[in-house]
């Protein structure tokens, strides 16, 4: 079954030196999810488009709170994951 978040976008493994044990261990950093990465990428465009529309039309912003911007960004990320 595929992850709904797209899985990890930037997983890393690194060697950790454990001086007490006198050996190195392989550690893993999972990184952000692909969904988080897509949302971050979409957020900039959403914020710029919202500001441009406000300036050109002279009306109110479509999104007025950080929560509304974040929700829109994750909606876009979910659409991107579904398109994959």
Written as H for each helix and E for each strand, in order along the chain, the element string is EEHH
Mean pLDDT: 81
Range of strand content: 15-25%
| SS content category | alpha+beta
User: What is the CA-atom radius of gyration, in angstroms?
Assistant: 19 Å
Calculate the terminal CA-CA distance, rounded to whole Å: 15 Å
Poorly predicted runs are none
Spatial shape: elongated
SSE layout and pairing:
Layout: E1 12-18, E2 23-29, H1 34-57, H2 66-83
Antiparallel strand pairs: 1-2
Fold and architecture overview:
By secondary structure, this protein is of the alpha+beta class. It is built from 2 helices and 2 strands. The chain has helices at 34-57, 66-83, and strands at 12-18, 23-29. Strands 1-2 form a two-stranded antiparallel ribbon.
Summarize the structure.
The protein is of the alpha+beta class and 84 residues long. It is 50% helix and 17% strand.
Key terms for this structure?
single chain, 84 residues, two-stranded antiparallel ribbon, alpha+beta
